[in-house]
Amino acid sequence: MDKQNRKAVIAGNWKMNKTATEAAELIDALIPAVKDADCEVVICVPFTDLVTAVEKTKGTNIHVGAENVHYEKSGAFTGEISADMLVDLGVEYVVVGHSERRQYFAETNETVNKRSRAALAAGLKPIICVGESLDQREQGVTEELVRMQVKIALNGMTAEELKNVIIAYEPIWAIGTGKTATAEQAEEVCAAIRKVVGELYGEEAAKALTVQYGGSMNAKNAEELLSKPDVDGGLIGGASLKADQFAVIVDAATKG
Prior knowledge:
α7 packs across α9. 45% of the residues lie in helices and 15% in strands. β1, α1 (20-33) and β2 (40-44) form a beta-alpha-beta unit. The protein has helices at 20-33, 50-57, 83-89, 99-105, 109-122, 134-138, 142-153, 159-162, 183-201, 203-208, 222-226, 243-255, and strands at residues 9-13, 40-44, 62-66, 93-96, 125-130, 166-169, 210-214, 233-236.
């Protein structure tokens, strides 16, 4: 099983953008723009937009994800959302361990693992984010760091659970900066992710894994990035907030 047999997944990460009213307008524009997509199309939206997104996308090829999830099923965790709450709404995917969560909200490799496992246990598909800072890249430790992040994130997961996991390589230095890893840099790290998964779960599991690139992927660079053999999709930030730009990326994934 290689790239042509893997599922390409283009997921929009809206971050803290769009009211429910604005979300409805954007989804109305997205539905016709991506209706012929040959890849999996996902929009990961703020908690306050989830009900709107699930309702609006019923009967379409757009799947809905959340941007975070807590690792406990319930309890005294003010402001948190459990996996069961998301599933009950009709959510299918969830972003876990985004660098902004790690940087601003003290997420650790260990909590990323706990959140991912809680998501899987409830039937959600986690999009697990890994990636290095500019300092770490310049120090030449990118591969070691990403290997560690992947190993800890997947700790305790079975090969069967891995089938519902996506790993997104997101170089921190390329998120929201306008900088983008070259297609070669993206391929190198996505291949390293697949390699470590192969060491943990075997070659067939590694070949079946969807590995996304995130980090300022846009309408202009998507086709080149997605043409690489180990880049199976994208976790899209700013470009996912504009239906026409997002549609170009979805189309590039179909070609890729």
